[in-house]
Structure formats: C-alpha cells, structure tokens
Design brief:
The chain is of the alpha/beta class and 331 residues long. It contains 14 helices and twelve strands. It has a six-stranded parallel β-sheet, with helices on both faces. A six-stranded mixed β-sheet has the order 7-6-8-9-10-12, sandwiched between helices. β9, α12 and β10 form a beta-alpha-beta unit. It starts with a helix and ends with a helix.
Length: 331
C-alpha cells in the first residue's frame, strides 16, 4: 500500500479508503489510485485485513447434500445476495453426516467469518448453540426451531405435504404411497404430517396411505421404493405416490418405466422441491415447488443484518410452497 501511495502521490489512508470505503474518495482520485494498483499489480493481503478487523468479508454455507440440486439452487440465491453486498461465499457439504457438519461449523468459527448459513441435520444440535454463545452470526436454512434463538428461513412443509396429497385425491386416487427418507429428517416428518392431514380430511382409511421409508433421499432410494411397490399384490398396490423430494420421485419414475409401468395411468407420481430436472424428466414430473433462490437470498440478507446491525432481531421466515401439476399425475 505504501508503494501504491507513493506512485499515486497520495497518502496510505487514501489508498485504504479506495480499497475499503470508496465512497469517501472523489471519482478522480479513485481512478488515479486504481490505475496505479493495476500498473503495480498490487493485491491486498486479505488475511492481514481480517486480522486487524477481527472478521472477514466471507460467508459460509454448510449445505446438507451437494448431490441434491435443491441445495445448490439455495446456494446460488445466497451467492447472488452476497455478491451484491461485496461478500464472497464458501460452500461446505456435510453429505448428511453429522460429524462432517460439526467439523465444518467448528472451522467456520475459527475463520472469523462474517456469517454462517447452515442446513443442519438437526436444528437443535449442540454445535449450533455453541456458535450462538460465541456470537457468530448464523442463520438456519430450510429448517425451523422451537425457539427464537436464531434467524430461520424455511418453507411450510406441512402445507406442502397437504397440497401434494390433495392433488392426488382430486385425481381420484384411493390408495397412495408416501415415499420418504429417515424419519429423523425434519422435512420428511413435516411432509408426511401434511400428507396424513389431507388423507384424514378426505375421510380415507389410514391404512390406505402406505408409508415407505428409504435409507437415503436420492434416486437410488426412489428406485428401491419402486421395487417394493411392484412387489405388492395388485389389491394392496397404491395407484399413486408422493415422494418427499424430487430425487426420490425421479428414481421411482425411472424404475417404473424400466418395468413397463405406465406413468400416470398405472402409477401417478408427485415429488417435492421442483428442481430443474423435474420438468425435464421423460415424463414431466409434478412437484411441490419451493422458492429455492428466495430461501438463499433471504437467509444471506438476514445473516448480514445480524453481523452489521446492532439492533438486529431474530426472525423466523416461512415461505409458502406451490403445487406444480405436470404429466406424471395429470396424463
């Protein structure tokens, strides 16, 4: 910075303002300093700046599963908001492994980040409360908690489950399968709760809503569920399936087509998330749409507000899902 100041014939403080507070420098002086910076090839030492400031210009997003396009879409929303605020984003993938999630979160604390966004396996995990005690700005994404200790941004998954099953009931289905992952996953529980509410409201027998649990919320899990459905007798076999996410639905669709099962004539399928692959499937997939980019953008804005606003108050934002009907249920 001293070399830049000398070459531009300005003070070191002016160079610092150009780099950090450009609004304090006249356009003429700013252009002059930036020209010298380009000529000299100067690159600021961001680590040193962070050490002096006690914080960084970086956000971290610890996502649940990078293989699921839903979370990468959320990450894009976070990145767009961060870029507009002059911040960068580091992406971490827990891969549905609690130990990896905890390790990533512990590392974010060491790095003195501007803020952290996380889609946790368990929104009540002790590591989150530990980060709160250390006053690290943190927003929980796509999860809710029973308290107001954090900002949270999520979608009303109970309503989403109701929308999906009400759609199948409206299409005339009397026996429906719910295909979901491990019951400890909050979204799975909420979407199943909504499905049961719709089923009961329609006066349908509880046993005619068949619950199939998969080991993972992925394409392979959906294909495995399809094999189990195919193994049921014709009398007990559901004529429709509501899958807890689109990857499960795509796996189920793939398995059905490979065995000659007609979708939706023999088996109607609806997913959840409305990722881009849903509309592009061989049979375009009905889905419950979540505002993925809005989730990420809102979460990023909230964590920055927490980091910079002394009067910040935690908020719990709940978005409304939307049913998108396509050929996999409507024919």
């Amino acid at each position: 910075m001293k070399d830049v100041a000398q070459a531009a014939q300005v003070s070191v403080g002016t160079v610092s303002n150009v780099l950090n507070r450009p609004d304090r420098v006249t356009p003429f002086m700013r252009a002059r300093v930036q020209e010298v910076i380009a000529e000299l090839g100067f690159v600021r030492n961001e680590s040193a700046r962070q050490l002096r400031a006690g914080t960084s210009r970086t956000l971290a997003y610890v996502m649940l599963d990078a293989r699921n396009p839903f979370f990468t879409d959320v990450a894009q929303g976070i990145e767009h908001a961060a870029e507009a605020l002059g911040l960068t984003v580091v992406l971490c993938n827990s891969g549905n492994v609690a130990a990896r999630e905890e390790a990533h979160l512990a590392l974010t604390q060491e790095q003195r980040l501007h803020g952290v966004l996380v889609t946790p396996m368990d929104p009540h995990a002790p590591i989150l409360d530990e980060l709160r005690r250390h006053r690290l700005p943190l927003v929980i994404v796509d999860r809710t908690r029973d308290d107001n200790e954090f900002c949270t941004v999520a979608v009303d998954d109970v309503l989403g489950g109701r929308l999906a099953v009400e759609h199948l009931i409206d299409r005339g289905h009397h026996r429906v399968a719910f295909v979901g992952g491990p019951p400890q996953v909050g979204q799975v529980r909420d979407r199943l709760q909504g499905a049961r509410q719709a089923w009961q409201a329609a006066g349908r027998p509880a046993e005619d809503l068949v619950v199939l649990t998969t080991d993972a919320l992925d394409v392979a899990g959906g294909a495995s569920a399809g094999q189990r459905l195919a193994g049921l007798s014709v009398r007990r076999r559901p004529t429709a399936a509501f899958c807890a996410n689109d990857l499960l639905a795509l796996g189920l669709l793939q398995q059905a087509m490979s065995t000659g099962t007609s979708v939706p004539d023999d088996l109607a399928i609806i997913g959840y998330d409305d990722i881009d692959f849903a509309a592009a499937a061989a049979v375009p997939l009905s889905s419950v749409r979540q505002p993925r980019h809005d989730l990420g953008r809102t979460a990023a804005e909230m964590v920055v507000d927490e980091a910079t606003n002394d009067s910040h108050e935690h908020r719990q934002v709940l978005f409304t899902p939307e049913l998108v009907a396509r050929a996999s249920t409507t024919g």
